[in-house]
């Protein structure tokens, strides 16, 4: 089977997705390692899966079942959380504007 | 014998009996750290010269004030004749991946260099409540991403106390080093693919990975949420049982924590192994590793001495009445690493999406705009290994891909779990109580030997990772030294929530080898101090 | 000009009225709270925290699914949706993609012309809300109070055909949400938010053309206006040879204008995958049946029944079913009264609604319970009080909480129905009006009304009118 490789374009896309700006040397190392890892990952494609193999979703061991009761419990130092923000003022976290007003969401 | 050589159980008993002052115990632990640890890891630090550096460098920071306060509280309880807890006066180090309120929790990353957690992890709180003294935070691979400690942003990273030119393993390398170097008798680590067991094996200590759900994950900075497990590193099996006793149990803050009752692990140790069915599997005789030069998979056999130690252990247990079942097939073991590449990377990339320079931790002050803030924060804040993991995760989870790798890997993960189900099935062909395997394919490797080869580094976890996929409990115990005087570890694996079984097996093995010559050899880093 | 048809689909975000947020124990409602005071390590995405699902949010989500005739998923699963934005502390939103709480479903719209229009639901899932950012003095600020509030996102199929239909949908959805008690659905407070997808096509065509998405149409008027305006723009564009492009538009309710936010550049890759920190949400058959059984009779069914069962006018039935508490109140009173339901309906439509308006209370919150209302109506029926007293009793019961009969007794509000004492008072009135008596006896019988008035004045309105006329007639005969 032809093994999939990460093209430089696809690599740029995921670097962008991860919000990284990489040096050429880092890029070379990372892309090479990613392709080596991907080679290993593609071993999975050759495994004959039984039809009955349950969907991905139940394989985390299920143990507890404790629905949380809908009861309010205030956290005692909300202010402390905001004070951990690198930029904050009067209880608000400050952030720069998106470039060109572009909404990232 | 100095205080630092006492087991946790002995310390707690002596403290409770008034035979050992908590402040003396704490001072002894801090003195040992001063004697053997050398420079703590720091962001400005450099890896030291392996030829001249004989120090352990297990720690990133001490929490002396906290430890003193806890010591006083324990002292006061003892003075009043109250029960001061199962871990009364026991110094414990914490892998710097657990939140501890108002102390800096770095995850060994620049990204969290100044992050003071606003809350305390459940496991850590339980230790404190049981009378433990939290003496400090120990080093790890950055965000736990590694098997050697070398990827820590806090240098010098930990050395292997047995030979400081070797790595202590990872990611709980600081924990293993601290315990092996008698800095603390116990350390709290985490295990996602082998991160407790591999360093414990490399450093000649006991490492216990409990069942997924046995110990709360709340406050553990997540690597791969469906695999992560907090667990102890200890110098003997009894201490591992003791600290598990303290940490195990349901936590209303962790939906995946088990509602099952917690058995008495210390009592379980008293039962022998007569009639216990212990399996050996040919699928743990080597690791299947893709040679990316040839594109072929090669099987690299387990180091001879480790193989021999595993067989010797089986023999020891057989002599005590255990039944050894050979040739138990575990055919999906070889897929453990490919599955791990998918599941752990996708979850890790997701968990680290919150590191954006807005709410806490590293940031850039002069960002041009929001995107610039994100990009520069994440580029400067993450080291190379986290970047690699995030990119792999992003690539494999991209919705645009034809293959849903997470689902595919989760299915194969289920098949890995079935191997164990069949082996442990009480009505099946094997009816095992425990599986006995090597913990690692080799003993500790030299620093810089394989660092950078992310694939080979990962394949070193092949003996341990299946257990994480299946959510099972496993323990590694020291089982000798190789020719280079590096520790060998063997691993016992049991069915879900059968921690008692592996503790019993490991304890029986440990007790039967107490007189072995190798147990009298001291780690190199300790040979000059209190020898 | 060709004939066009407008195609509209609505995407709504419904804030569930739970006590706490969906994954932590912070209060769900932060109305009027200072920014960033209703937060904790979990809803601010601190490293190491874990979500804990609020069982009530599941119950309310499932109840909404039942009300929408959707299939309640016996095993729904949460997923992570990844993107970076300062109001999203974890860098992902916990939502449901592959196995949502509800599947399918529809809402039947009762149009003003009596027609029933079925609007199908394309998807319905539980998720957490993001925080808010605001711009002040050129500085972007983040408030995370709203982060983690439980939402149901519900998206319709493109089944709506005008701004008016969309407005009807939103209005009837809002009514339904309040009726079944899952959301306050206060649009001004953002409990019910709406985006609209709009496209047009030639009448008779079945194709779907490029659509635009209008964000923030957060009132019923806005929905109507924005869609109508956007459809008009698209038609004019096509007529003049242009082409509709896939824009996202922003609706400014103050100016009533649409503006372009951005063009859609390919779908973002949200890297959805299952949320590993949360267990699948398992609802047993029994639990699902219990949820369905707890679904109250819905407004339109009840409206129809009121007309048929109680012979109310369509208008009265609509008013009395405009709110669930009000209609429950009415039915309770009817059941206690056991006579003409119309009598109760008249009281409800006039005096009771006025009382609720004046006190600012809903039917459920009134001190005056249906038992008291029925007692007052019966006092009136039995001639023990007059109509004016009846009306004033409503207010007095509401204020004091005392039983109507007790107030009547304490304040002496009962009618004088004792013939002897009334006869004495009438004799006195007649003795003081010899001229009028003479005139009456002389044939001016229209003075009867004047005499009654005099007696009412003398008794402070408490004379039983029927008895008064009888005695007057007898005395004046002499």
Describe the 3D structure.
The complex is a heterotrimer of chains A (105), B (531) and C (478). By secondary structure, chain A is mostly helical. Chain A is built from three helices and two strands. Chain A has a domain of 39 residues. In chain A, 32% of the residues lie in helices and 6% in strands. In chain A, a hairpin with a 2-residue loop joins β1 and β2. About 6% of the residues of chain A have low confidence. In chain B, 35% of the residues lie in helices and 13% in strands. Chain B has an eleven-stranded mixed sheet with strand order 1-3-2-4-6-5-12-13-11-7-10, with helices on both faces. In chain B, β8 and β9 form a beta hairpin. In chain B, α7 runs antiparallel to α16 and α10 crosses α12. The mean pLDDT of chain B is 95. Chain C has 478 residues and is an alpha+beta fold. Chain C contains 15 helices and 17 strands. In chain C, α2 packs antiparallel against α3, α5 crosses α6 and α12 packs across α14. The mean pLDDT of chain C is 92.
Q: End-to-end span of chain C in angstroms?
A: 88 Å
Average pLDDT figure of chain C: 92
What's the assembly state of these chains? heterotrimer
Total number of strands of chain A: 2
SS summary, helix count of chain C? 15
Radius of gyration based on Cα positions of chain A: 23 Å
Instruction: Count the DSSP helices of chain A.
Output: 3
In what order do the strands lie side by side in the largest sheet of chain C? Answer: 7-8-11-1-12-13-14-15
Spans of chain C of at least 5 consecutive residues whose pLDDT stays below 50 are none
With strands numbered from the N-terminus, the spatial order across the biggest sheet of chain A is 1-2
- Number of β-strand runs of chain C: 17
Write down the overall geometry of chain C: elongated
């Amino acid at each position: 089977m032809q093994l999939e490789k990460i093209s430089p374009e696809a690599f740029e896309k995921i670097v962008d997705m991860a919000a990284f700006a990489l040096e050429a040397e880092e890029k070379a190392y990372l892309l090479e390692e990613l392709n080596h890892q991907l080679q290993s990952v593609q071993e999975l494609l050759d495994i004959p899966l039984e039809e009955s193999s349950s969907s991905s979703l139940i394989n985390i061991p299920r143990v507890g079942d404790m629905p949380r009761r809908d009861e309010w419990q205030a956290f005692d130092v909300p202010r402390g959380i905001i004070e951990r923000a690198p930029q904050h003022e009067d209880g608000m976290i400050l952030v720069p504007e998106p470039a060109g007003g572009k909404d990232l969401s | 014998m100095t205080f630092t050589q006492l087991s946790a159980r002995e310390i707690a008993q002596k403290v409770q009996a008034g035979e050992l002052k908590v402040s003396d115990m704490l001072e002894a632990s801090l003195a040992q750290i001063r004697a053997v640890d050398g420079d703590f890891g720091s962001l400005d630090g450099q890896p030291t010269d392996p030829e001249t550096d004989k120090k352990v460098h297990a720690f990133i920071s001490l929490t002396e004030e906290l430890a003193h306060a806890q010591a006083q509280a324990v002292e006061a309880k003892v003075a009043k004749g109250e029960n001061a807890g199962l871990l009364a006066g026991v110094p414990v180090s914490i892998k710097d991946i657990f939140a501890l309120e108002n102390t800096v929790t770095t995850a060994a990353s620049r990204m969290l260099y100044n992050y003071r957690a606003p809350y305390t992890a459940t496991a850590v709180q339980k230790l404190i409540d049981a009378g433990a003294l939290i003496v400090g935070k120990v080093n790890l691979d950055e965000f736990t991403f590694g098997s050697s400690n070398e990827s820590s942003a806090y240098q010098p990273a930990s050395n292997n106390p047995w030979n400081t030119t070797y790595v202590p393993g990872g990611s709980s390398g600081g924990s293993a080093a601290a315990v092996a170097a008698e800095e603390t008798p116990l350390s709290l680590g985490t295990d996602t693919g082998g991160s407790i067991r591999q360093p414990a094996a490399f450093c000649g200590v006991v490492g216990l990975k409990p069942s997924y759900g046995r110990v709360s994950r709340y406050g553990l900075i997540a690597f791969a949420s469906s695999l992560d497990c907090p667990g102890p590193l200890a110098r003997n099996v009894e201490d591992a049982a003791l600290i598990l006793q303290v940490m195990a149990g349901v936590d209303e803050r962790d939906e995946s924590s088990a509602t099952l009752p917690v058995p008495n692990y210390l009592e379980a140790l008293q039962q022998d192994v007569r009639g216990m069915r212990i399996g050996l599997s040919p699928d743990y005789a080597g690791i299947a590793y893709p040679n990316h030069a040839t594109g072929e998979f090669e099987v690299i056999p387990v180091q001879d001495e480790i193989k021999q130690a595993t067989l010797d252990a089986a023999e020891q247990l057989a002599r005590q009445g255990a039944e050894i079942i050979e040739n138990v097939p575990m055919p999906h073991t070889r897929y453990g690493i490919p599955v791990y590449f998918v599941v752990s990377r996708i979850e890790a990339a997701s968990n680290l999406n919150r590191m954006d320079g807005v709410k806490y931790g590293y940031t850039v002050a002069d960002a041009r705009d929001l995107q610039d803030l994100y990009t520069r924060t994440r580029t400067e804040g993450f080291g190379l290994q986290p970047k690699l993991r995030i990119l792999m995760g992003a690539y494999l989870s991209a919705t645009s891909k034809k293959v849903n790798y997470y689902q595919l890997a989760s299915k194969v993960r289920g098949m890995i779990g079935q191997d164990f189900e069949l082996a442990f099935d009480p009505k099946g062909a094997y009816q095992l109580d425990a599986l006995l395997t090597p913990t690692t394919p080799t003993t500790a490797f030299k620093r810089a030997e394989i660092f950078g080869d992310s694939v080979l580094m990962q394949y070193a976890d092949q003996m341990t990772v299946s257990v994480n996929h299946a959510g099972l409990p496993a323990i590694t115990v020291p089982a000798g030294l190789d020719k280079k005087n590096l520790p060998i570890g063997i691993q016992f694996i049991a069915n879900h929530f059968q921690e008692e079984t592996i503790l019993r097996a490991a304890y029986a093995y440990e007790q039967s080898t107490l007189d072995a010559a190798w147990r009298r050899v001291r780690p190199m880093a300790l040979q000059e101090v209190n020898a | 000009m060709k004939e066009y048809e407008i195609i509209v689909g609505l995407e709504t975000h419904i804030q569930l009225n739970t006590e706490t947020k969906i994954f932590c124990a912070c209060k769900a409602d932060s109305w009027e709270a200072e920014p960033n005071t209703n937060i904790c390590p979990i809803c601010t995405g601190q490293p190491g925290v874990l979500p804990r699902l609020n069982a009530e949010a599941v119950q309310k989500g499932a109840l909404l699914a039942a009300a929408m005739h959707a299939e309640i998923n016996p095993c729904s699963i949460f997923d992570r949706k990844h993107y970076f934005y300062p109001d999203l502390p974890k860098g992902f939103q916990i939502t449901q993609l592959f196995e949502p709480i509800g599947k399918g479903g529809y809402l039947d719209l009762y149009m003003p012309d009596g027609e029933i229009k079925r609007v199908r639901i394309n998807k319905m899932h539980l998720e957490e809300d993001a925080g808010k950012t605001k711009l002040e003095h050129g500085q972007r600020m983040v408030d995370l109070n709203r982060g983690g509030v439980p939402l149901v996102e519900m998206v319709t199929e493109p089944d709506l055909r005008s701004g008016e239909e969309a407005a009807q949908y939103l209005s009837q959805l809002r009514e339904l949400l309040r009726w079944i008690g899952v959301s306050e659905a206060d649009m001004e407070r953002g409990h019910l938010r709406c985006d609209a997808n709009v496209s047009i096509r030639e009448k008779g065509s079945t194709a779907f053309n490029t659509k635009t998405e209008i964000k923030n149409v957060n009132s019923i008027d806005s929905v109507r206006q924005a869609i109508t305006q956007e459809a008009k723009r698209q038609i004019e564009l096509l007529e003049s040879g242009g082409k509709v492009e896939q824009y996202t538009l922003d609706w400014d309710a103050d100016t009533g204008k649409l503006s372009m936010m951005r063009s859609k550049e390919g779908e973002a890759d949200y890297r959805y995958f299952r949320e590993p920190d949360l267990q699948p949400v398992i609802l047993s058959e029994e639990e699902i049946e219990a949820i369905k059984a707890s679904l109250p009779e819905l407004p339109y069914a009840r409206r129809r029944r009121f007309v048929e069962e109680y012979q109310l006018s369509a208008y009265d039935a609509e008013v009395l079913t405009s709110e669930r508490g009000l209609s429950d109140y009415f039915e309770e009173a009817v059941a206690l009264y056991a006579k003409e339901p119309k009598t109760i309906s008249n009281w409800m439509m006039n005096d009771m609604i006025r009382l609720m308006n004046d006190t600012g209370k809903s039917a459920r919150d009134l001190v005056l319970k249906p038992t008291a209302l029925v007692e007052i109506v019966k006092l009136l029926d039995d001639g023990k009080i007059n109509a004016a007293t009846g009306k004033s009793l409503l207010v007095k019961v509401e204020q004091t909480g005392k039983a109507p009969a007790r107030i009547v007794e304490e304040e002496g509000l009962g009618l004088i129905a004792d013939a002897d004492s009334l006869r004495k008072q009438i004799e006195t009135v007649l003795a003081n009006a010899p001229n009028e008596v003479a005139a009456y006896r002389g044939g001016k019988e229209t003075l009867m009304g004047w005499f009654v008035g005099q007696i009412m004045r003398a008794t402070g309105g408490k004379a039983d009118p029927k008895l008064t006329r009888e005695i007057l007639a007898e005395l004046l005969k002499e």
